[in-house]
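Bench notes, afternoon.
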Amino acid sequence: YLKTSKEAPNFSIPIDMDALDSYIKNTVHILSTAKTGNYKEKLIRNLLAASRIKVKAEIQDDGAFHVKEYWTPIDSGRIHGHGFSLQLAPKEVRHAALGRCSKIDFKASSYAILTSIALLINPQLKVEALKSYITYRAPIRTRIAKKVGISEEWIKTVFTSLGFGAEVKDNPYNTIRNKLGKEKFNILVANQ
C-alpha cells in the first residue's frame, strides 16, 4: 500500500492533522519500549504509513489539511483507491488521519434495502433466502468460508461486493474472481 499511483489525483480527503500528529507521537513512544517481534513490526509499518500521510497532506486556504488520491469505480459499484491510499492504510492509521468521525456498519443493508424495494415492486417474489441471509449472515458466511477455504473476512468482502452489484464472472479481472483465484472461485460458484 505504500506504492504511489501514476494517475492524477481526483479525490481530496480532509485529514485531522492534530489527531495524526498525536498518533505518530504515541506510536514513537510505544516503539521505544516495544520488544522485537510482530507487534513491533506492525508499529513500524503503521508509523511509516502515518508519516507518509502527513508528508502527502497539503494545507488548504482555510488552514485544513487534505490528502489527494486517485480513486476509480470497480465492478462492485464501490470506489477503490490506487497507489498509496487511506483505504489501504492500516485501520489504526486511517482512523487517526480521519480524526473524529462516525463509523457506521449497516449490517447487510444493501440486501435488506434491495429486498424491500423488490417486494414493493412485486410482492409475489420469493425472498426467503435473502431474509435468511440478512438475519443469519454471520453463521452463513462462516459456513461458506470454511467450504471455500478462505477467511471469514474474505467471504464478508465477497458478500459485500455482491450486495453492491458485483457480478459473479469467471474472469480474472472481475473483483471477486481476482480476489479468490480460479480454484476457490469455482468452489464458491459450485456452492451457490
